[in-house]
Design a protein that fits this description.
With 382 residues, the chain is of the alpha/beta class. It contains 15 helices and 13 strands.
Length: 382
């Protein structure tokens, strides 16, 4: 029987990682009721009872150039977290995603003699592959959630376990279509477009002008409803000014219901595209950063696709409108194609079902829920 740890440091830097880590904390708390959790916590980790030494919202910045202006603040938060680790001496550390921050945290924790579990493998297979050396040196175990990652890391000497995707057994609508439409006063019989501009405020603001433009173009030919389910890190009130006078209406949460019951989802490339795949929601993906960040990224990134859905499928399943291709006109054109062509919608839904099956594969083999597998792995390190 593994010894129950006195305390565990948990750190997540963005919305999806905050959700995964919170689910893991709940499972570990069930196993070790007396254990204390502290670290870098977002809303969901705080709700799970993690003492927020720092808040993950303070680290939520995307883009190579965009992060520069925030470095002094991030550095202060980093020092605060490491100081807490040195003082509290946790038995284990669980770092989730956000590699630019967490690789530095892992190095410091290693020097303090604290075992590190890295939950959700960073995408070093896509860019800056040299970081594998850092992972080999500073991480005691890596838990990956995508099927193609295990072989990549194992071949490079990183101790890795493929646990499956935590969302595979969790993503589902909570309301019927009729109840969802009733809750948000949506007209019956009118197609619904779910608008998901990103969980961070900065990325949402970058994407909104073209999404608003797309809504205007699409509504010229037919009446449509546009719903933007605000992420916990943004909140619906944040969109009051950016969406003023537009056809898009922000609501609090309900993203899974919006995608499940919508006719098309317009989704920023990221975790939400995986959620859409698991829900079988036809979608159009997009992303935009500053011109300088894009130019630098193009030199560093080496992948055939940008969307995780297409990477998992190994082929183009959903359209990707990246950087300059992300225009209101292009978004409207791809959305119209899916709304008007039932055969295209059916084909995409079939491919999305295959992606969902790949994400669920280790769970279907009788090895349990991904979070339970992650908790088992943490127990093993302890």
């Amino acid at each position: 029987m593994p010894r129950a740890p006195r305390s565990i440091l948990v750190s997540a830097g963005e919305a999806s990682g905050d959700y995964y880590a919170a689910e893991l904390v709940r499972e570990l708390r069930r196993r070790w009721p007396q254990c204390v959790f502290f670290g870098c916590a977002g809303p969901q980790l705080r709700e799970a009872g993690v003492d927020a030494v720092i808040r993950s919202e303070d680290l939520s910045v995307v883009g190579i150039v965009e992060v520069l202006g925030h470095l002094p603040r991030i550095w202060r938060r980093f020092r605060t977290l490491i100081r807490a680790a040195a003082q509290r001496k946790p038995d284990i550390a669980i770092l989730t995603d956000s590699p630019d921050f967490h690789f530095r945290v892992a190095r410091k924790l290693k020097r303090l003699g604290i075992p590190v579990t890295y939950f959700v493998a960073p995408q070093v297979w896509a860019w800056r592959k040299g970081r594998v050396k850092t992972m080999r040196r500073d991480i005691d175990q890596l838990l990956c959630i995508f099927p193609f990652e295990e072989a990549f890391f194992r071949e490079r000497g990183v101790p890795v376990t493929y646990i499956g995707h935590p969302l595979a057994t969790r993503v589902r609508p909570t309301l019927s279509r009729a109840d969802f439409f009733r809750k948000h006063n949506l007209p019956d019989g009118r197609p619904l477009v779910a608008v998901l501009p990103g969980s961070r405020r900065s990325e949402a603001l970058r994407h909104l002008p073209e999404l608003v433009r797309a809504a205007e173009i699409l509504s010229r030919d037919r009446p449509l409803s546009f719903i933007l389910p605000a992420s916990p890190t943004c909140g619906a009130a944040f969109f009051a000014d950016p969406l003023a006078g537009s056809l898009i209406r922000a609501i609090e949460g309900d993203a899974w219901d919006a995608m499940a019951h919508g006719d098309v989802a317009l989704a920023a490339s990221g975790t939400v595209t995986v959620e859409a795949a698991l829900l079988g929601a036809p979608l159009v993906t997009f992303y935009r950063v500053t011109g300088v960040s894009w130019a630098i990224g193009k030199l560093l990134v080496d992948v055939p696709f940008y969307s995780m859905v297409n990477l998992i499928a190994g082929k183009k399943v959903v359209p990707e409108l990246m950087q300059d291709q992300m225009t209101g006109e292009a978004i409207a054109a791809e959305t119209t194609r899916l709304l008007d062509n039932e055969a295209e919608r059916a084909k995409m839904k079939e491919e999305l079902a295959r992606v969902a099956l790949l994400l669920s594969k280790p769970l279907l083999s009788g090895t349990g829920d991904a979070i339970i597998r992650a908790a088992d792995a943490v127990e093993g390190v302890n």
